[in-house]
# Entry
Amino acid sequence: MANKKKGKGKKGQQEEPVITRVKYPKKKIGEMFARVVEIYGNDRMGVFCEDGKHRIGRIRGKIKKRVWIRKGDLVVINPWEFETETPDKPGKCEITWRYTRAEISWLERNNKIPEILDINNIPV
# Structure
């Protein structure tokens, strides 16, 4: 029986995944795009949302152990409606989805990402 290597192409190179479907934020329920700008630990991170606000994001339990989220990643968030925002305290939200590199490049080619979330233009 011949040995076959599975999952990889030429010597350590992975094949580019084919994008067939990309998840969009559901605007009806309040979801929106955001960028991760800081990582606080304990499944919490600072995100900059497409509406121009900084929020504290909590990673949803369903994706907590399956997906690693790093600084600069494009994510989908769902703001908490029951949390009252005050000028000294940022609002809170739940991170429900993280985009892969291939998905981000597809979104950029089709102009789906708002310009405010360009990684170089995020205000601190």
Observations:
- The longest strand covers residues 32-41.
- Residues 101-109 form the longest helix (9 residues).
- The radius of gyration is 17 Å.
- The chain has one domain: 27-117.
